[in-house]
Amino acid sequence: MNNDIPYRIEHSPAYASLVLDIPVDQTVLVEASAMAAMDTCLKMKSKIKGGLGKGIGRMLGGESLFVNEFTAQGRSGELYISPNVPGDIQHYYLTKKCNLMVQGSGFVACSPNIELDSKFQGLKGFFSGESLFLLRATGTGDFWFSSYGGIVEIPVTGNYVVDTSYIVAFEDSLNYDVEVIGGLSFSNLATGIFGGEGLVCRFSGQGRLWIQSRNLHPLLNFLNTFRPTKNN
Prior knowledge:
This protein is mostly beta strands.
């Protein structure tokens, strides 16, 4: 497995954390607020992802506007990274042959020469009930992404169908279309758009796809029933 930055993933897959051993004078980009602990030789500064215009697009899409840069000065240093949601972490080494599409909340860290851009999904994003933006990673270097629950890698050759709520990442060699299960009737369409059920993504082509073993939204709906309410 190719990688430029030494790393290890601990406590996978339930509460995975990422530990980077950043070589001297090298920099990594990390999702804002994901730093848990670090050596004192690491210096941090914040920047807007991809510039102001692209950063605002991500903010409107539900993503963090900022990313933190960590640079090892004088010696190598360890950086502990913990995603906001408990789950798994996956490493992917980007090359110019293939780009990676990641759900907006999935970015964890990457090499400084990786370009992060939000790709508008149009009606695909509307149907999915999720963010209207996917994160598109291009360039050459290390990239780490996370999920809620464990991450399952699926090699796709031909066609494959996944519930939209379980998609974590996929190589852009795959084509995809969002469909309503059971046919495009008014009732099915309304249920899918407003209830978030019955919507799947049909992938075609050849490439790798990563899905998560759990869906966060049913858990949030379950916990919402225990939310304190005020009596009139």
